Task: structure prediction
Amino acid sequence: MRFSKTCLKNVFTVVLIFIYLLLTAVAAFLAYQTISDFLVKLNHPVTSVTYKEVDSFSPPGIALYPGKAQLLSCRHHYHDYIPPLVDPGKPQEGDCLIDEVNYFGPFTNQKEKRALVVRGPSDVRNKELIFMQFSHNETEEDFSAITYMLFAKFSDLTNSANKSDFMRDCERNYSMWTFSGGFRTWVKMSLVRTSGKINESVEFRQESTVVKFNDKRPESEQSNQLFFAVFEWRDPFINLSIVTANPWNSIAILCGVFMALFKAANFAKLTIQWIIKMRKRHLRNKARELNQIS
Result:
């Protein structure tokens, strides 16, 4: 019976150690997974997205690079309505606020650029839009397009001490788009603001639709290719992306995992000490029995 109890205790001890080792392995795996997630979050912080409704936007800056093309007209319209064209291809009266800036680009310092910066629409509730018409009389080119760039506030340019440096920085930080000749390109803009701990970045997103221009001018005038562009806000919402989840939030989970590892190691240590103690007691009892017999 004593042998059976001792054997049972040893089996129970082995099972207990196995359980502790299994728990330690699970805790180590969780630590590895947590560290991996920590490294991922360090490179890709988690953000939350909210939408802020506004009645109007700050007028953006629409920087156009027409090259040899000529701006024929630039007018404001409302409620998604553009009147029928009258004498397309000929200069017409406009009502846009335009600032011309010459500067050397950040990537091509030897080449001077000419930018026509138009004050963009702001009244999103009344669907304010800007309709522009360009003419290009060069026919030897294989492809014809006009490049443009958007930045957050037209007032940033007018209030800038050095407009050339301002435009150079904008070109370095913002994307460029194009619209082609012979079409009307309708650009609908939306604004995304991403806020971090220190800095805030502004990004424009846009959707564009292209419609072919049916040229009804006399054939002798059709050598001048026409470009049409429309800019308006897509909706009255600003996309606010806020960095909410910091990679350091994983430290709390990591501490919990390491605490579990410590507890498992401590349990294993106490178990081994208990086994050694029980073994010594068993040997003392056995020696005492042998002495009594002798």
User: Anything to note?
Assistant: The helical segments are 2-43, 154-158, 163-173, 250-293.
